[in-house]
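My current task is to audit a protein record that another person submitted. Alongside the sequence sits a line of tokens, each denoting a local backbone shape. Where you disagree with what is written, explain briefly why. This is what I was given:
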Amino acid sequence: MAKHISDYTVLNNGVKMPWLGLGVWKAKEGEEVTNAVASAIKAGYRSIDTAAVYGNEIGVGKAIQESDVPREELFITTKLWNGSQGYESALAAFEESRKKLGLEYVDLYLIHWPVKGKYKESWKALEKLYKEGWVRAIGVSNFQVHHLQDVMEDSEITPMVNQVEFHPYLTQKELLRFCKVNKIQMEAWSPLMQGEVVKEPTVLELAEKYNKTPAQIVLRWDLQHEVVTIPKSVKEHRIIENANIFDFELSAEDMEKLDSLNKNHRFGPDPDNFDF
């Protein structure tokens, strides 16, 4: 069980991935995102998660370049956007992201959404990038069980990570089980239910019981489910606060209380029904 911000999970190819990272969705390109990443690195975070569609890879790269933490101690994730899916276009999109980040390699590259008729070709491109050493690990995002099965059916490499919407209102039990059995590391985006976490009575009650913030309760719940989590914030005090989750443990009973909040409610799009 994760006891420190430097603790990590080991992916199915042996690569170490931190349990906690900073997400930068909606962080503005330029000073805002650069400062957020710099604050996170200063607070001990070693994992940063961006994506081509976020439009802030240059700012993320700038913070990495200006950091005094050695590159090999950082874990940088970016993602392939839907409009660039397909074999050749995925290879070109990766190269563009890599250059914007100013990196020689990326630690984790994900297919952002399962675009019908395209994601298997995209996966072949990711396998090529992985074999050639441009990326240390490859994975997917927003893939349901059937999407994963489809990719695995005729791929050489099983995805190492599946990053999905995951929080107490959307516990995705079947998907989590499938990922564990197949050694695919699950990762949570939107872990704080897009801010709704502070309105949930059960979470507030547990926050009081453990003397923690509602966000810290839910992020700890992620870790105890062995799900990597990447809360997003651009405020330094919140970035520090979100990392203060390694000095307590939720009881089995309280884990169940949070699990029982599930209502299969998505704040984001449905991976089986999206049009972008």
